[in-house]
Amino acid sequence: MPTDTPILSLAGITKRFGGTTANKAVDFDLAPGEIVGLLGENGAGKTTLMNVVFGLYRPDEGIIRIDGQPVGIATTADAIALGIGMVHQHSHAVARHTVLENLMTGLPGRKGLLDRRSALRRLTEIGDAYGLRLDPDRPVGELAVGERQRLDIIRALFRKARVLILDEPTSVLTPQESEGLFSALRALRNDKVGIVFISHKLNEVRAITDRIVVMRRGEVVADVPNDGKLTNVGLASLMCGHEPERVVRQPRQRGEARLSLRGLRLTDTRHGGAAKAPIDLDIHAGEIVGIAGVSGNGQVRLAETVAGVEAAAAGEIGLDGNIVRDPSPRRMQAHGLAYIPEDRIGAGLVGSMPVRENMVLSRYVEAPFSRRGWLDWQAILDFARRQIAAYDVRPTDPHLPVGLLSGGNQQKAIIARELAFSPRVLVIAQPTRGLDVSAIAFVHRALMNLRDEGCAIMLISDDLDEIFQLSDRIAVMYEGEIVRDTPVEEATVPTVGLAMTEGRMAGRNAA
Amino acid sequence: MRLVARPNRNSPLRDAMMPVAAVAASLLICAVLILLAGANPLTAFGIMAKAAFWGKFAAPLILSGLAALVALRTRFWNIGGEGQIIVGAMAAAWVGALTSLPTPLLIPFMLIGAALAGAALAAVPASLKTRLGVDEVVSTLMLNFIVMYLMQALLSGPWKDPVTGWTNSPSILRAAEFPVFWKGTRLHLGVLVAFLAVGVVGVIMKRTTLGLSMKIVGENPRAARHAGLDVTRVTLAAALLSGALAGLAGAGEIGGIQFQAIASISSGYGYAGIGGALLARLSAAGIIPAALFIAAITTGADEMSRQTGVPFFIADAMQGICLIAVLVAMTLSRYQIRFRTSPERRATP
């Protein structure tokens, strides 16, 4: 493969935004039938570089070659015409239209008419060749996140892409969906498609790629073959320029039960209808209980129910030994429960509003931020500035709309808000999804400190490594119930993984 | 040539200039229309400006603009301003003509009654939305027609003016007529109420927890719920406030202009207020110039057609053009225009 002419070759690409240089003289080659992992922290310039390739940005300097020929790429249409396809983290497909209609938009029709029959044939061909199957007549709005992403990949292949750029494709996928994506990528590799795989998940990058390119502060700092000798720690050090901090859990005597769930039955865990079995769970002071599970087994509903956002079908929630009657988010807050939802920008923040307002989103009705319904903007601003500094939220301007911040800084802002008043219980879902190595270490450190101060923490995560790293106890959710609950010392990845996929039966067999 | 999304979204100067540019653009287009109709645009605009200043239509437009602003901020699509103005007017007419309240209480109760009536009417679609999930665009709009025909039934039946026998309500008492501040003009108490309301709404939106709650619910109801806001109560509060403001507009028409309820008491103020709120970019202070502008077009075009012979429908055309211009400007201000360069120069140094 290395002897082939690179399908895509970048030489000396420089891209500046105002005073900052996002890409500094970057060289990058991609051979046909090669999967290259592109690693780097947020702001390292990976996405900028790929946006240059896809015609979203124009480079200030440098040359792009396709099959050895210099090309100009001024628009995405140019990029598509040259055989470049990009799959973004979030799909841009039209929700009301069907799969086939979405695939046909932008394709040349025959004599002005859409050619439905040949489009259908191509869809079947792609499904057979790469295992990328979708029902052509389903409206895109009904597709799950993973299916939408599949649609985007199929769309790129419809337009005969030979270079496929995937920007953090697995950050929205379940482990099973990721595995399906990987087998499709391997099939594409056999057909000489060149693939750029951008991700923060080092295990996946090591598993799927042939070569790994690491960027830091706009420059390529490493370009190494993935020969099986690379380690996560080694790659992470390359990405952040120093050995990454790994938060280590020190065993600690747990205190009294802070959060007690008794006979809690969740509503609508998967396809409507309440969960079959009730949940009984205690989380104690100074304890992190990790809730593992394949996504879609009711973890989100559990978090929302405990936080008072959703009502339970039955059962009781106790805080500090007192049953909370008629739970609501405000009532749970008043009892010292803080909640950090998994969907940061959809449920945790108001993206169009400044950081300042978002810092007090759950507290502005209370003193000192307001008195008798009158806001004290000075107090709010002072508080926002203090929390921004304490949690290193960047940029530091409290007047900036929070939606403009990176995912890591958005999460820091939410944590800064929710941890400001020393919660007695914290419910946090997917705390590090989509974050880079440094931000992950920051969040883990914050959670561990909070636990050491005696907070009771419910940690919901799809990332088993994270669960094992932080939890004192690991509970497994399956179809809306807790099927396994053991101290971390008694849990292993295989037993937990089995309980995740097979539920109570697996738990019983293991015990 | 193509449009490219602007990277930085917040620019106060651009936000402020946008409606100005939109208005200028629509005036330019209208000037062409007036010219085609055979009149001098400058004379026509002069007449319009003068008509706007006298503010016959500005007061109800300010109030209904504020009503729309409060509702739109909370993403409660209150298209029912028209109906809320009508019930406000009817409440004021009833208090002013048919109750035997002592004189000093008459005018305050007309205002309070009108605000309550407007709020009560707005509470109906708001409860339907929060309890049953009924789309408020449909329910508020349909209520307008129900209320309009109810009023007409009332005016041609039980409320028919006993003196003249016309389909008007009885005239309000002399003591119920709003005082006029400037003799010979229409600058009555209702205008003062409208300007005060601008201040009150501005303070509510900027300085109170209620205003912040309304904005949060409007921007992201899911985040609002997760943060512990009572979305139902906030929506209801916004609807009540919106309805009350529209109701006050009705009181002004009764107490300051018509002195009795007539079938055409609100000739589209409720709808024009939505345009006004958009033109003001949902800023309370911006409602004043926006309302004056729309009032200028409406009154001015009427006056203009009488004096210069321009057809009256140009007023409607101007209103439409102006709103489209604002909406286009709002969208375009998020983009910048780029001209495509030749392919050779693109990716090479």
Task: Give an overview in words.
The complex is a heterodimer of chains A (511) and B (349). Chain A has a six-stranded mixed beta sheet with strand order 6-7-8-3-9-10, with helices on both faces. Chain A is α/β, with parallel strands linked by helices and 511 residues long. The longest helix of chain A has 16 residues, at 175-190. In chain A, a hairpin with a 2-residue loop joins strand 14 (314-319) and strand 15. In chain A, helix 14 (407-418) packs parallel to helix 15 (437-452) and helix 17 (493-502) runs antiparallel to helix 18 (504-510). Chain A has helices at 46-53, 76-81, 99-104, 116-130, 145-158, 175-190, 202-208, 232-240, 299-306, 329-334, 344-348, 355-359, 377-390, 407-418, 437-452, 464-470, 493-502, 504-510; strands spanning 8-17, 20-30, 35-39, 61-66, 69-71, 84-87, 163-167, 194-198, 211-216, 219-225, 257-265, 279-284, 287-292, 314-319, 322-323, 337-340, 370-371, 374-375, 425-429, 456-460, 473-478, 481-487. Chain A has three domains: 8-240, 3-Layer(aba) Sandwich (Rossmann fold); 254-336 and 424-511, P-loop containing nucleotide triphosphate hydrolases (Rossmann fold, 3-Layer(aba) Sandwich); 346-420, no CATH class. Chain A has 18 helices and 22 strands. With 349 residues, chain B is mainly α. Chain B has one domain (2-339): Orthogonal Bundle (ABC transporter involved in vitamin B12 uptake, BtuC), CATH 1.10.3470. Chain B is 69% helix and 2% strand. Chain B contains 13 helices and two strands; from the N terminus they run βαααααααααααααβ. Chain B has helices at 12-37, 41-54, 58-73, 81-98, 103-132, 136-156, 189-207, 209-219, 221-226, 231-258, 269-279, 287-308, 313-332; strands at residues 2-5, 335-338. Chain B is globular. The model of chain B is unreliable at 341-349 (pLDDT under 50).
